[in-house]
Amino acid sequence: MKGIPLSLVALGFACYATSAYGQADIPDVRLASPDGRLAITIGTRDFSTPLAARSQLFYSVELDGEQLITHSPIQLRLRGAPPIGGGMAIVDTMRRTVDEHSELAYGKTRYLHDFCNEYRILLQETDAPHRTIRLTARAYDDAVAFRLHLPRQPQLQNVAIEAEHTLLDLRPGVAHLLPFQNFRHPYENNYTVARTTAIEPATLIALPLLVHLDAGPWIAISEADLEDYAGMYLSASEAKPGAFISHLAPLPADTSLVARLATPHDLPWRVFMVADHPGRMIESNVIMNLSDRSAIENTDWIRPGKVAWPWWSARTVEGRDFQGGMNTATMKYYIDFASAAGLEYLLIDADWYGKHNDPAEDITTTIAEIDLPEILSYANEKGVDIILWVMWENVRDQMEVAFPLYESWGVKGVKVDYMNRDDQEMVNFYQRVVELAARYHLSVDFHGAYKPTGLRRKYPNLLTREGVLGLEYSKWSDRCTPEHEVILPYTRMLAGPMDFTPGAFNVGTRETFRHSVVPPMAQGTRAHQLAMYVVYESPLQMLVDHPASYFGQPGLEFLKLVPTVWDETRFISGEVGDYIVVARRKGDEWYVGAMTDWSDRAVSIPLAFLGDGRYLAELYSDSPDAQRDPTAVAAHIAEVTREDSLDVWLAPGGGCAIRIAPTWTP
User: In angstroms, rounded to a whole number, what is the distance separating the alpha carbons of residues 119 and 488?
Assistant: First the structure.
């Protein structure tokens, strides 16, 4: 059906949904990427295990003719109705090539190029009740994906889903996984490494899941365009060792169900990134390409940037005649710092309106110690905007009143916290928050959050989210290690921005680090922390330490200049859990970040990504004695061209941050 307009195909699909279709079955459909290397096949076949069914819908994935995922069934189990996925036949298909360019409000790249091949496949049950579904498959050069669409039809109107069983019959390999024991969590844990055949079925695996296939490429599994549905997890299949089966977060009030839907309804994309090296996945925009275009027509008011965050340092104040705390004077002190350092925001965190964990608190009032009008007026004079922390239950109950009030006050954003779920109800809450926040010109930062799935493209006022074991864990544990920090770019960050909250200048070696609430300390070197502002993607980046820790210190000038949004992103080198080097461009300037685990290493950074001409490189690297004194940063400059390489030494837990600006271009 190549060349037939989509509108006519959609009309035909709608007709098929009302009666049994009598044509002969269409064979399996194979869809290859534009470069021909990566392919996804959709079809039906009989399965005996783990989902026993006749003519069961399946998919498979291959690279260069070699199977990565063998025939894996797809099934929806419904309450009060037969499962969807078995006894099906392909009755119609339409193929097209997508080649679209668009500009983002912000991101790791300025432009998106959505370039892929696509099949829309209509399937119908061969026996009563003759329900139809549509599967859309896409093949990019760096990923394949599919999603189900449930059309409106007499036999499928209001749907109660008990489970989605999507199997991943993956070739054996080594997995880097984020494990949990249940669905109630904030996506905060350390990653573990295990053979896919040795993972316990009781382990719930959060996405993205990264696997290095034996004698083959890397594959990362995630999801995109998650709306009005439950977040997906994986677990090892008991029936097929080495394979994985999907699980959805259950509804809180009825844990036997994962979703209640009214048709027509699109289910999320199931996404499979594939690369010869996992670092190439950092460059991928597939999650954004699979997500809805912006619902906000004018995004000029959305302001990414850097943030002063008093919470990390317990609101420490030095050199003033008042005690730091949740009070007006402290907030003005941090506003002074934000203004002097060129930061866009001050984040007033928990307790400004009352007890942070009390759903009965009123988020339209303040405690007596906080004079919010005075703070906002002072911040406005200094060119600093204000973000307010709010607990999600208070937001759920009061946002219709609070958000317009915040806009009238001059507040520019909200940080919504403590959700710790990604069931259908919570997914819908996220959407309601960003939609209402956009109406009142508020940016959003979700904490206690689940992984990104592309909602930021539809609502660019969603600047970032947590969903990661971040630097705050250094206040009460030793879990936030340099090794953990160089796993994250290859795993969690593949889904999208993460508010890791970097910037600690009080740092310790493996021997001297001690977790402490006051004063807090981070593991590794100060240059390691500087590098995070380039390596970690987040349009909203915190500076966590107190003002006195930054002033007069090497590295502050870098923090003043480093952007938080980018025109281009390049992976340079690295290995999962060992080290990483990333380069990002903003305008005609490049920034490079290099980070290592507890092993010191020499890294050579080729500068072939530069344009023609001459450049000045400003390097902030570990000093020669950084193994003893991790706060020591060596700052120096070098004139370079694209023919050069920069050789840097990374101390244990170390790093290097580089700004490269043109001095002459032809």
Answer: 33
